[in-house]
Amino acid sequence: MSDNPVAKISRTAWMNADETLTVMMALCGGTDDKGDEARFVGGCVRDAVLNIKAYDVDIACVFEPQEVTRRLKSAGIKAVPTGIDHGTVTAVVNDATFEITTLRHDIKTDGRHAVVRFTEEWREDARRRDFTMNALYCNVRGEVYDYFNGLEDAHKGIVRFIDDADKRIQEDYLRILRYYRFSAHYADLKKMDLGARQACAKYAEKLNGISAERIQIETLKLLNARQADKLWGLMLDDGVVDVILPQAKNIHALQNMIALEAGLESPAYNIRRLAALIGFDINAARQVAEGLKLSNDNRDMLIILCDRDAKISAGVSETELRKAVYFSDIDIVRSRILMDAAADNKNAEDIRPAYEFVTRIRLPEFPIRGQDLIDRNVKKGAGLGRILKEVESWWIEQDFKPGRSESLKKLEALIA
């Protein structure tokens, strides 16, 4: 083919992995000489260029899905037809998965779905992608192919739509959120494309037609980004937040939360950041959880963080902190402390003693079991549960200090 590589990158761990090489050799006929048959594409290449750890490895190839499947199976690789109509087959080697997609171009789009036609032209496949930095390809030798200046944009921190922003967005309105999400992760905000933002604002209302699950994925990925607060602020300015999450506008609390996480070296946590944006409004939290179709665990966490009655101030006693950990867990209590601090404009040093105390908490197990009551002729039933709960409440009020012998004495006193 006529296209030529424009750069070469150092081989990464994922490129050298046995699973990766097994799949690429199966697609390329057992040799690395045929770089035009299968190439890595998208995020894994972008992240390799930027020396960032990649988590998903996607592959583009010239073969149609049936031939991809045949080659994989011939090499003893499991092939799953995950998106056969759009040319996607998933290869599974050990615990590693690889999405392999036939080169294609769109022949019809409606803002959500596309009808595609397969092609053998790498440039055509690149043209249908969203941003220049996501349209980079790399063969198994580490040679990079770039059709729209994505290499330079990636290095400069410019998230740029391929060709016309209006056209790209009208093909798939979810690209509005993807623009802000990738900017939150990769952009030099001084170099943001004003025209792209104007296009996003222009079509923001179209996000009402996108599924909650797709909105959820982009939103949570954005909120984990290092510049989440800055981009959420731009989304507010551009009218996007009003469409997708009108309950989540407390940008100042989000800024505080990110500063607190950094100061305490706490990993970014998107649900906690979302809670900061909502504030102490449990009804709004329920609306957001339902609107985004959050998982049960994420819904429950969001609701407890936004419950004013569940607030934990960094100034509470160590005894109360131990109680809080006993009835939930360390991670939840730390998040509740951070939530209160972000809302109350505290800094990391204000809450460090409480935060680090909770981190160190190791509570003993409650030393009494139901069998202890049965051994003392307490019949199974509500009465047994009531007595067990009374002993546990007493043990908690004693700050978890009584051992088994003292707790048994309390139990026997209650039974008597």
Description:
The chain has helices spanning 13-16, 18-27, 43-49, 65-74, 122-127, 150-156, 165-171, 175-186, 194-202, 212-223, 228-237, 240-244, 251-263, 270-278, 282-292, 296-305, 318-327, 330-343, 348-360, 370-374, 382-397, 404-415; strands at 7-8, 38-41, 57-61, 78-83, 88-93, 96-102, 104-109, 114-118, 136-138, 143-146. With 416 residues, the protein is α+β, with helices and mostly antiparallel strands. It folds into three domains: 1-156, Beta Polymerase, domain 2 (2-Layer Sandwich); 245-363; 370-415, no CATH class. The strands form two sheets. It has an eight-stranded mixed beta sheet with strand order 1-10-9-2-3-6-5-4. A two-stranded antiparallel sheet has the order 7-8. α10 crosses α14 (270-278), α11 (228-237) packs antiparallel against α13 (251-263) and α18 (330-343) runs antiparallel to α19. It is globular, with a radius of gyration of 27 Å. The chain starts with 6 loop residues before the first strand and ends with a helix. The mean pLDDT is 93.
The whole-angstrom Rg is 27 Å
Widest β-sheet, arrangement of strands? 1-10-9-2-3-6-5-4
What summary fits the major beta sheet? 8 strands, mixed
Oligomer: single chain
Distance between the termini: 90 Å
Computed structural class: alpha+beta
CATH superfamily name of the largest domain? Beta Polymerase, domain 2
How many H/I helical runs?
22
* CATH architecture identity of the largest domain: 2-Layer Sandwich
The percentage helix is: 40-55%
**Count of structural domains:** 3
Highest-level CATH class of the largest domain: Alpha Beta
In CATH, the topology of the largest domain is named Beta Polymerase, domain 2
Number of strands: 10
Average of pLDDT: 93
Unreliable spans:
none
> What fraction of the residues are assigned to beta strands by DSSP?
5-15%
C-alpha geometry: globular
